[in-house]
Amino acid sequence: MNPQFADKQGDRWSFVAVLPDSSFVHTIHHSKRTGEQAEVFLGKIKQKSDGLAPLFLSDAWFYEQALYNTYCRYEPRSYRGRGRPPLPLRIVDEQLKYAQVYKQRDRRGKLISITTRIIKGTEAEILAIIRKSGRSKTINTSFVESRNGKYRKDDARLNRKTMCHSKKTKYHDAHADFLTAVFNYCRQNEALKELINPNAPLFKTKYLRKSPAMAEGLTDKILTVKELLFSRVPKDSIL
């Protein structure tokens, strides 16, 4: 995003991480949009996953140092007996791959150009990981941008300069968390449907419709909102 529009982002920001293979919203974190909070957000991603460094694609904001601080290890340095003991050496995980998508806009906010920047790893390595999933071929942030668009469409609290804006952060955050669960468990994703009966006659099931949670193996059907609300889930589970 163009820095000249940074002062129009409001007082509350939601960091969103989407798994590209399934469009599952893996992690959402509500806070100020700062580098410190970005590191908290990445810490949640690491805690909810296997801890291995992922391929991370984002817009051109402050994730670089936050990623390096999250996916790294520290090795002690030898002390020669004079002065202060040296600080441990930070070694960034070699498996970490990171690229940025930079969108340049004019003074009115109209998109002018889109460029990519390879921050960690090589372009060939990043493209190989992207194409392996079969859902994309280029470096982009389309999956998270699509999800962000659905948040704005379904949550009037995110609209600017309207009477719908949240007066209290707890209601703002709770609504976004609820929508996240609905997106993951109650909405089918057309890109995930599976052909199970190619010769199905009229009014018979031809495709198996899937939600992101089904694609992740977390449930065997698309839940209704009632089923979602009556489900018991662990406190620290993924939404």
Can you tell me about this structure?
This protein has 239 residues and is an alpha+beta fold. It folds into 2 domains: 3-185, no CATH class; 188-233, no CATH class. It is built from 7 helices and 9 strands. A 3-stranded mixed β-sheet has the order 3-6-7, covered by helices on one side.
Keywords summarizing the entry:
alpha+beta; 239 residues; 2 domains; 9 strands; disordered N terminus; two-stranded antiparallel ribbon
Rg, alpha carbons: 21 Å
The count of helical stretches stands at: 7
- Strand arrangement in the largest pleated sheet: 3-6-7
Q: What average pLDDT do the residues reach?
A: 86
**What is the string of helix and strand elements?**
EEHEHEEEEHHHEEHH
User: Strand fraction band?
Assistant: 15-25%
- Termini gap: 27 Å
Largest sheet: 3 strands, mixed
- What share of the residues lie within helices? 25-40%
Summed up, the domain count is 2
Give a brief rundown of this model.
The protein is α+β, with helices and mostly antiparallel strands and 239 residues long.
List the helices and strands and how they pair.
Layout: E1 13-19, E2 24-31, H1 35-48, E3 55-59, H2 63-70, E4 72-75, E5 89-92, E6 97-105, E7 111-120, H3 123-133, H4 142-154, H5 169-185, E8 194-195, E9 207-208, H6 212-215, H7 225-229
Parallel strand pairs: 3-6
Antiparallel strand pairs: 1-2, 4-5, 6-7, 8-9
Helix pairs in contact: 1-2
